[in-house]
Design a protein that fits this description.
The chain is an alpha+beta fold. The chain has two domains: about 120 residues, Beta-Lactamase, CATH 3.30.450.20; about 110 residues, Orthogonal Bundle (Arc Repressor Mutant, subunit A), CATH 1.10.10.60. Helix content is about 50%, strand content about 20%. A five-stranded antiparallel β-sheet has the order 2-1-5-4-3, sandwiched between helices. The longest helix has 19 residues.
Protein backbone atom coordinates (compact mmCIF):
# COMPACT_ATOMS: atom_id res chain seq x y z
CA UNK A 1 0.00 0.00 0.00
CA UNK A 2 2.74 2.43 0.94
CA UNK A 3 4.46 1.84 -2.40
CA UNK A 4 1.44 3.31 -4.19
CA UNK A 5 1.75 6.53 -2.23
CA UNK A 6 5.51 6.69 -2.80
CA UNK A 7 4.93 6.31 -6.54
CA UNK A 8 3.41 9.79 -6.53
CA UNK A 9 6.01 12.51 -7.01
CA UNK A 10 5.52 13.68 -3.44
CA UNK A 11 8.35 16.19 -3.55
CA UNK A 12 6.93 17.85 -6.67
CA UNK A 13 3.49 18.17 -5.08
CA UNK A 14 5.01 19.48 -1.87
CA UNK A 15 6.98 22.14 -3.74
CA UNK A 16 3.87 23.14 -5.70
CA UNK A 17 1.73 23.70 -2.62
CA UNK A 18 4.46 25.41 -0.59
CA UNK A 19 3.80 28.56 -2.62
CA UNK A 20 0.13 28.74 -1.58
CA UNK A 21 -0.08 30.33 1.89
CA UNK A 22 -3.89 30.22 1.92
CA UNK A 23 -4.02 26.48 1.22
CA UNK A 24 -3.22 23.65 3.63
CA UNK A 25 -2.00 20.65 1.61
CA UNK A 26 -1.55 17.12 2.91
CA UNK A 27 -1.02 13.49 1.99
CA UNK A 28 -1.99 10.82 4.53
CA UNK A 29 -1.52 7.07 4.79
CA UNK A 30 -4.25 4.44 5.03
CA UNK A 31 -4.63 5.14 8.75
CA UNK A 32 -5.08 8.88 8.28
CA UNK A 33 -1.59 9.82 9.44
CA UNK A 34 0.24 12.69 7.79
CA UNK A 35 2.95 11.76 5.32
CA UNK A 36 3.37 15.21 3.77
CA UNK A 37 2.23 18.66 4.90
CA UNK A 38 3.00 22.08 3.50
CA UNK A 39 4.12 25.22 5.31
CA UNK A 40 0.59 26.61 5.53
CA UNK A 41 -0.68 23.56 7.42
CA UNK A 42 2.29 23.77 9.79
CA UNK A 43 1.63 27.45 10.50
CA UNK A 44 -2.08 27.16 11.16
CA UNK A 45 -1.48 24.44 13.75
CA UNK A 46 1.27 26.42 15.47
CA UNK A 47 3.89 23.72 14.91
CA UNK A 48 7.58 24.62 15.01
CA UNK A 49 8.50 22.29 12.15
CA UNK A 50 6.49 20.58 9.41
CA UNK A 51 8.00 17.30 10.55
CA UNK A 52 6.15 17.64 13.86
CA UNK A 53 2.95 16.62 12.03
CA UNK A 54 4.37 13.59 10.23
CA UNK A 55 3.00 10.28 11.52
CA UNK A 56 0.21 12.00 13.42
CA UNK A 57 -3.52 12.43 12.80
CA UNK A 58 -5.37 15.77 12.89
CA UNK A 59 -6.69 14.89 16.35
CA UNK A 60 -3.09 14.58 17.57
CA UNK A 61 -2.08 18.13 16.61
CA UNK A 62 -5.30 20.10 17.03
CA UNK A 63 -7.32 20.04 20.28
CA UNK A 64 -10.97 19.17 20.66
CA UNK A 65 -13.43 18.97 17.80
CA UNK A 66 -11.24 21.02 15.46
CA UNK A 67 -9.02 17.94 15.36
CA UNK A 68 -11.73 15.31 15.77
CA UNK A 69 -13.89 16.39 12.83
CA UNK A 70 -11.17 16.19 10.11
CA UNK A 71 -9.98 12.89 11.56
CA UNK A 72 -13.51 11.50 11.22
CA UNK A 73 -13.67 12.82 7.66
CA UNK A 74 -10.44 10.97 6.87
CA UNK A 75 -11.84 7.73 8.28
CA UNK A 76 -14.95 8.01 6.13
CA UNK A 77 -12.97 8.68 2.94
CA UNK A 78 -10.55 5.85 3.70
CA UNK A 79 -13.29 3.35 4.54
CA UNK A 80 -15.74 4.18 1.73
CA UNK A 81 -13.48 5.51 -1.02
CA UNK A 82 -15.94 8.39 -1.50
CA UNK A 83 -14.21 11.75 -1.98
CA UNK A 84 -15.04 14.89 -0.03
CA UNK A 85 -15.22 17.83 -2.44
CA UNK A 86 -15.48 21.56 -1.67
CA UNK A 87 -16.83 20.97 1.82
CA UNK A 88 -17.36 24.34 3.54
CA UNK A 89 -16.11 24.18 7.12
CA UNK A 90 -14.41 26.17 9.83
CA UNK A 91 -10.81 25.59 10.88
CA UNK A 92 -8.86 27.04 13.77
CA UNK A 93 -5.83 29.08 12.74
CA UNK A 94 -3.63 29.55 15.82
CA UNK A 95 -3.29 31.53 17.94
CA UNK A 96 -6.94 32.63 17.91
CA UNK A 97 -8.38 33.07 14.45
CA UNK A 98 -11.15 30.83 13.09
CA UNK A 99 -11.06 30.71 9.28
CA UNK A 100 -13.41 29.25 6.70
CA UNK A 101 -12.11 26.67 4.26
CA UNK A 102 -13.26 24.67 1.29
CA UNK A 103 -11.85 21.19 1.90
CA UNK A 104 -11.30 18.48 -0.69
CA UNK A 105 -10.06 14.97 0.16
CA UNK A 106 -9.52 12.27 -2.47
CA UNK A 107 -8.74 8.60 -1.84
CA UNK A 108 -5.50 7.15 -3.21
CA UNK A 109 -6.39 3.80 -4.75
CA UNK A 110 -3.79 1.04 -5.01
CA UNK A 111 -3.43 -1.26 -8.02
CA UNK A 112 -5.39 -3.96 -6.24
CA UNK A 113 -8.30 -1.59 -5.63
CA UNK A 114 -7.64 -1.03 -1.94
CA UNK A 115 -7.42 2.44 -0.39
CA UNK A 116 -3.78 3.26 0.25
CA UNK A 117 -4.27 6.74 1.68
CA UNK A 118 -5.68 10.11 0.77
CA UNK A 119 -4.56 13.42 -0.68
CA UNK A 120 -6.23 16.75 -0.21
CA UNK A 121 -6.19 20.42 0.64
CA UNK A 122 -8.17 23.04 2.53
CA UNK A 123 -8.34 26.42 0.79
CA UNK A 124 -9.08 29.47 2.90
CA UNK A 125 -12.15 31.45 1.90
CA UNK A 126 -11.36 35.12 2.35
CA UNK A 127 -13.49 38.02 1.13
CA UNK A 128 -11.43 40.55 -0.85
CA UNK A 129 -11.57 44.11 0.46
CA UNK A 130 -11.25 45.73 -2.94
CA UNK A 131 -12.09 44.58 -6.44
CA UNK A 132 -12.87 46.95 -9.31
CA UNK A 133 -14.94 44.26 -11.00
CA UNK A 134 -17.57 44.22 -8.26
CA UNK A 135 -20.68 46.17 -9.36
CA UNK A 136 -21.12 49.30 -7.24
CA UNK A 137 -24.56 48.33 -5.92
CA UNK A 138 -23.39 44.82 -5.06
CA UNK A 139 -20.41 46.26 -3.18
CA UNK A 140 -22.74 48.55 -1.23
CA UNK A 141 -24.97 45.62 -0.26
CA UNK A 142 -21.94 43.59 0.85
CA UNK A 143 -21.00 46.43 3.20
CA UNK A 144 -24.46 46.16 4.78
CA UNK A 145 -24.82 42.40 4.58
CA UNK A 146 -23.42 41.30 7.95
CA UNK A 147 -25.61 43.84 9.74
CA UNK A 148 -28.75 42.80 7.81
CA UNK A 149 -28.60 39.03 7.71
CA UNK A 150 -32.36 38.68 8.06
CA UNK A 151 -33.23 41.16 5.31
CA UNK A 152 -30.62 39.78 2.90
CA UNK A 153 -30.85 36.19 4.11
CA UNK A 154 -31.67 34.49 0.79
CA UNK A 155 -30.05 34.46 -2.62
CA UNK A 156 -33.17 36.03 -4.12
CA UNK A 157 -33.21 38.93 -1.66
CA UNK A 158 -29.47 39.49 -2.01
CA UNK A 159 -29.79 39.59 -5.81
CA UNK A 160 -32.83 41.88 -5.67
CA UNK A 161 -31.22 44.35 -3.28
CA UNK A 162 -28.08 44.36 -5.45
CA UNK A 163 -30.08 45.00 -8.63
CA UNK A 164 -28.70 41.94 -10.40
CA UNK A 165 -30.10 38.61 -11.56
CA UNK A 166 -29.69 35.37 -9.64
CA UNK A 167 -27.43 34.11 -12.43
CA UNK A 168 -25.23 37.19 -12.16
CA UNK A 169 -25.13 36.83 -8.37
CA UNK A 170 -24.03 33.22 -8.71
CA UNK A 171 -21.24 34.18 -11.10
CA UNK A 172 -20.06 36.97 -8.80
CA UNK A 173 -19.99 34.95 -5.58
CA UNK A 174 -18.27 32.07 -7.34
CA UNK A 175 -15.66 34.29 -8.96
CA UNK A 176 -14.96 36.51 -5.97
CA UNK A 177 -15.35 34.09 -3.08
CA UNK A 178 -15.27 30.64 -4.66
CA UNK A 179 -18.73 30.00 -3.21
CA UNK A 180 -22.29 29.62 -4.42
CA UNK A 181 -24.73 32.29 -3.12
CA UNK A 182 -26.13 29.78 -0.63
CA UNK A 183 -22.65 28.86 0.61
CA UNK A 184 -21.72 32.53 0.87
CA UNK A 185 -24.81 33.38 2.94
CA UNK A 186 -24.28 30.34 5.16
CA UNK A 187 -20.61 31.15 5.63
CA UNK A 188 -21.39 34.75 6.58
CA UNK A 189 -24.11 33.78 9.05
CA UNK A 190 -21.95 31.21 10.82
CA UNK A 191 -18.93 33.54 10.76
CA UNK A 192 -20.95 36.30 12.44
CA UNK A 193 -22.32 33.83 14.97
CA UNK A 194 -18.90 32.37 15.76
CA UNK A 195 -17.49 35.84 16.34
CA UNK A 196 -20.33 36.71 18.70
CA UNK A 197 -19.92 33.41 20.54
CA UNK A 198 -16.22 34.08 21.01
CA UNK A 199 -16.26 37.82 21.72
CA UNK A 200 -19.46 38.17 23.78
CA UNK A 201 -21.46 36.42 26.47
CA UNK A 202 -24.78 36.92 24.70
CA UNK A 203 -27.27 34.05 24.89
CA UNK A 204 -27.15 31.48 22.10
CA UNK A 205 -30.81 32.14 21.29
CA UNK A 206 -30.09 35.86 20.84
CA UNK A 207 -27.06 35.16 18.65
CA UNK A 208 -29.20 32.82 16.52
CA UNK A 209 -31.65 35.62 15.70
CA UNK A 210 -28.92 38.19 15.18
CA UNK A 211 -27.23 35.83 12.72
CA UNK A 212 -30.36 35.49 10.61
CA UNK A 213 -31.73 32.16 11.83
CA UNK A 214 -35.41 31.65 12.60
CA UNK A 215 -34.79 29.96 15.93
CA UNK A 216 -32.12 28.39 18.09
CA UNK A 217 -32.79 24.86 16.82
CA UNK A 218 -32.20 25.86 13.18
CA UNK A 219 -29.08 27.75 14.23
CA UNK A 220 -27.69 24.80 16.19
CA UNK A 221 -28.25 22.40 13.27
CA UNK A 222 -26.58 24.72 10.77
CA UNK A 223 -23.70 25.55 13.10
CA UNK A 224 -23.04 21.90 13.89
CA UNK A 225 -23.11 20.99 10.18
CA UNK A 226 -20.54 23.68 9.41
CA UNK A 227 -18.21 23.26 12.39
CA UNK A 228 -18.89 19.80 13.76
CA UNK A 229 -19.82 21.16 17.19
CA UNK A 230 -22.76 22.91 18.84
CA UNK A 231 -22.59 26.69 19.41
CA UNK A 232 -22.14 26.19 23.16
CA UNK A 233 -19.33 23.68 22.68
CA UNK A 234 -17.67 25.98 20.16
CA UNK A 235 -17.79 28.91 22.59
CA UNK A 236 -16.15 26.90 25.37
CA UNK A 237 -13.56 25.34 23.09
CA UNK A 238 -12.62 28.53 21.23
CA UNK A 239 -12.12 30.50 24.43
CA UNK A 240 -10.12 27.63 25.91
CA UNK A 241 -7.80 27.51 22.88
CA UNK A 242 -7.37 31.28 23.02
CA UNK A 243 -6.50 31.14 26.72
CA UNK A 244 -3.94 28.38 26.12
CA UNK A 245 -2.24 30.37 23.36
CA UNK A 246 -1.69 33.48 25.50
Amino acid sequence: MQQTIRSIDIHLLERLFQSLPDTAFFIKDFQGRYLVVNESLRARHGLEHSGDAIGKRPSDICPGDFGRVPAEQDTKVLQTGCPLVDHLEMHWYLPQEPVWCLTTKLPIVADDGSIAGLIGFSRDVRTPLENHEIPKKFAEILDLFEDNLIEYGTASSLAQQSGISLQRLARLTKRLFGLSPTQFISKTRIAVASRLLFETNRAVSEIALTSGFYDQSAFTRAFRTATGVTPTAYRLQAKSIADQSK
